[in-house]
Specification:
By secondary structure, the protein is an alpha+beta fold. It is 23% helix and 29% strand. The chain is built from eight helices and 20 strands. The strands form four sheets. A seven-stranded mixed beta sheet has the order 16-15-14-17-18-20-19, sandwiched between helices. A six-stranded mixed beta sheet has the order 1-5-6-4-3-2, with no helix packed on it. α1 packs parallel to α8 and α3 crosses α4. The longest helix has 18 residues. The chain is globular. The N terminus is likely disordered. The structure holds S-adenosylmethionine. The site of S-adenosylmethionine has 19 residues, from α4, β15 and α6.
């Protein structure tokens, strides 16, 4: 339970008993002290009572390491990965997958409730068809030739022989490269949809495996996409397919003819919507992603691509008098800047489809749009990142009648 050599092993630390009733922002289970201050206990599960050793008393919260499970959760399972608890990657492997979904549902609903939105509009999360070996992208730290991750406590490096979240091709490359990477401190491995679509960065001086490939090919919605090394692409291909279907249905349901795809990445949504609507405007700030999107839009004459920050490009569209029916918004974890939200509302789309990987910023931005005349119809969480505390969600807002 307590990790050898972790801060919890220091002599003189105090021992507490705590009821765990929630999850902290990093996925640690959370209880409260007598003053209501959060106590975070890694490896706990909401509903459990544990004995724990405090290793850090901060002004805002206390961190403790579990030393005994006094009342285990009925949802507790054996974490299959021997690195679980040491590694930052997974926080929920010790929780049955059905319970992970319930926890993620509550995470989204609680954030909505906290900003005064109706938690009941959050649907049951869509389970992943493949909760293991789903990740198509890995970023390894390299030390003395060995690939690994950085430990949860003390940020110390540890070697990773295999990762249960990675696609088998990444684990095969990991085994091949282990102990041979003396020329770099980082290694980025991406695998695309075709079996031979592999990118290892940086370029290595090894004869085998080949490395330095600048992009991989992905396939989504029956279309191929070039994805360059720095560009974003969803890590769980099967769940990305379902997300695209949901987004497409939400856009087409209102009979959209002009669609804005803000934060467009390599152009997945825009390209897949182009066959169904008259015009799509894709906005993206990253140069490599825009170059990929331009390539991926080859043959699509009804997609306009605008390079720039959403908050500036969307304001320019308002000034130009651009008319759109639906705004599709898929920002990074921090959500939209206020200027971007202002411009989206000023463009007066009938519907906003908001794709998010962070329930906190999602709730904040939904609240801002509801305050400006939009009604929240539904929120659909998707388990895009099984065994981690992360959750993806699609939210649909409609302009209130008469507004
Ligand atoms: C979560 S990804 C979504 C990409 C794409 N919709 C997809 O599904 O693959 C967010 C994208 O927003 C881009 N981005 C981040 N900040 C931005 C900004 N201020 N303006 C425009 N694009 C931005 C990133 O480069 C990234 O491609």
């Amino acid at each position: 339970m307590a990790e050898p050599g972790s801060p919890a092993a220091h002599a003189g630390d105090d021992i507490i008993e705590v009821e765990l009733d929630g999850l902290g922002p990093r996925g640690d289970a959370c209880g409260r002290d007598d003053d209501g201050k959060p106590i975070y206990v890694a490896g706990g599960i909401p509903g459990e009572r544990v004995r724990a050793r405090v290793y850090k008393r901060g002004r805002i919260s206390t961190s403790a390491e579990m030393i005994a499970l006094l009342r285990p959760s009925p949802h507790r399972v054996e974490a299959p990965c021997p690195l679980f608890g040491h590694c930052n990657g997974c926080q929920l492997q010790h929780v049955a997958i059905e319970r992970q979904l319930a926890i993620k549902h509550a995470m989204v609903a609680d954030q909505l409730g906290a900003v005064g939105l109706e938690p009941a509009c959050v649907r049951a999360p869509l389970a992943a068809p493949s909760p293991w070996h789903y990740r198509n992208h890995a970023r390894f730290t390299v030390k003395r030739g060995r690939l690994g991750f950085v430990r949860r406590h003390r940020h110390a490096f540890f070697e990773v022989p295999q990762c249960l979240l990675m696609e088998p091709r990444i684990n095969a490359l990991l085994a091949t490269l282990q102990g041979r990477l003396h020329e770099t401190t980082q290694c980025n491995i991406r695998v695309g949809a075709p079996d031979d679509a592999i990118s290892i960065q940086p370029r290595l001086s090894l004869d085998e495996p080949a490395s330095g490939q600048p992009f991989v090919i992905e396939v989504l919605g029956g279309r191929s996409f070039r994805v360059s090394t720095p560009a974003f692409f969803q890590v769980h291909r099967a769940q990305a397919e379902r997300m695209v279907e949901l987004v497409r249905a939400a856009v087409l349901e209102v009979g959209a003819t002009v669609v804005l795809d803000a934060f467009a990445g390599v152009g997945t949504f825009a390209a897949l919507l182009a066959a169904h609507v008259e015009h799509v405007i894709a906005v993206e700030e990253s140069g490599p992603a825009v170059r990929d999107a331009s390539y991926n839009f080859g043959g699509l004459s009804n997609v306009a691509l605008r390079l720039g920050k959403a908050e500036q490009v969307l304001r320019a569209m308002v000034d130009e008098g651009t008319a759109i029916d639906v705004a599709l918004v898929d920002p990074p974890r921090a959500g939209c800047l206020p200027d971007a939200l202002d411009a989206i509302v000023a463009l007066r789309p009938r519907r906003v489809v908001y794709v998010s990987c962070d329930p906190g910023s999602l709730a904040r931005d939904l609240r801002a749009m509801v305050d400006r005349g939009y009604a929240l119809s539904w929120v659909q969480p998707l388990d895009m990142f099984p065994h981690t505390v992360h959750v993806e969600a699609i939210a649909v807002l409609d302009r209130a009648a008469g507004d």
